[in-house]
Design a protein that fits this description.
The chain is an alpha/beta fold and 297 residues long. Helices cover 41% and strands 13% of the residues.
Length: 297
């Protein structure tokens, strides 16, 4: 099984992550991670130059992901609301270029937590607005040398893009080579018939991967088919990072958006430490290669 850089999302460390939290990068490195995925929740409190310096001091690479609340909706019917969503994404692209992140990822097509039963013509109009907006951002991102990785979310967190198949259609409609998919095992566990099958369907469009157990907890403590999923990533030639993502249930806005009503690990520190141990063992070939790679418990 191929080795991959292993990353940790700042959602595990603090939320909203800010310049005041940059000292936590030392803990990320001490746990054994190769990179940190920085989520830009509040652009006013996070400085690209300081993030880049702090990561460099710890020997970490940086990936950038976005946080898409109601005020960042590139699919909204109001042009001013769409413009606000584009402005935010363009800020993420500029931030990524400064910290040398190869991409910006996330469910950038619509706000997280929005689930509505629309008529087909309404859904088509929303889809077209998202495509138009993301095509414009993709053009700017290409000039900056930054890719976009679109993340399908489960049906309870979005009503627009839930599956790899839908994500591929969105990428095709945006029609830009540097636009691909972020695959999150938590969402795939809900929406896909087979995680390895979905990875193989995504093929060369896989640009980023987030690792989370079926209950949003520590990888290796549930029933996710980690061996099959990682083997499928090898088969499609994916060589990028595998990023551990979970959320602090104490952050009310995020907890509400992702329906996180209870702790999914004894602590976020324990989740971070155990996740990298499990993934490193599996990626180095010491773990099982089937669906029973659970950590000792």
């Amino acid at each position: 099984m191929a080795s991959h850089p292993i990353g940790l999302s700042t959602f595990v460390l603090a939320s909203p992550f800010s310049d005041e939290n940059l000292h936590l990068f030392g803990r990320v490195r001490a746990w054994g991670y190769d990179l940190v995925e920085v989520c830009i929740e509040d652009p006013a409190v996070l400085t690209a130059a300081r993030v880049a310096r702090a990561a460099r001091d710890e020997g970490l690479s940086v990936l950038v992901c976005g946080a898409f609340g109601p005020g960042r909706d590139v699919s909204h019917e109001d042009p001013a609301r769409r413009r606000a969503g584009r402005d935010y994404l363009e800020h993420c692209v500029a931030f990524a270029a400064e910290v040398r992140s190869p991409l910006v990822s996330g469910p950038m097509y619509a706000p997280t937590g929005q689930a509505r039963l629309l008529e087909p013509d309404e859904r088509r109009a929303q889809w077209d607005r998202a495509v138009e907006s993301l095509r414009a951002v993709a053009s700017l991102a290409a000039e900056a040398g930054v890719g976009l990785a679109v993340e399908p979310l489960n049906r309870f967190e979005t009503d627009l893009v839930n599956t790899v198949e839908q994500g591929l259609r969105l990428c095709d409609d945006i029609d830009a080579d540097h636009v691909g998919l972020l695959l999150d095992t938590f969402h795939m566990n809900i929406e896909e018939k087979s995680l390895p099958g979905a990875v193989r369907a995504a093929g060369s469009r896989v640009r980023a991967v987030q690792a989370s157990e079926n209950d949003r907890g520590t990888p290796g403590t549930g029933h996710t088919d980690w061996g099959g999923t990682l083997e499928a990533l090898d088969q499609v030639g994916y060589t990028g990072a595998v990023v551990v993502e979970s959320f602090l249930p104490t952050v009310r806005e995020i907890a509400r958006a992702v329906s996180l009503w209870r702790p999914v690990a004894p602590s976020m520190d324990a989740l971070a430490a155990e996740s990298v141990r499990f993934l490193r063992r599996l990626l180095d070939g010491d773990g099982h290669r089937s669906g029973d790679e659970g950590t000792e418990r």
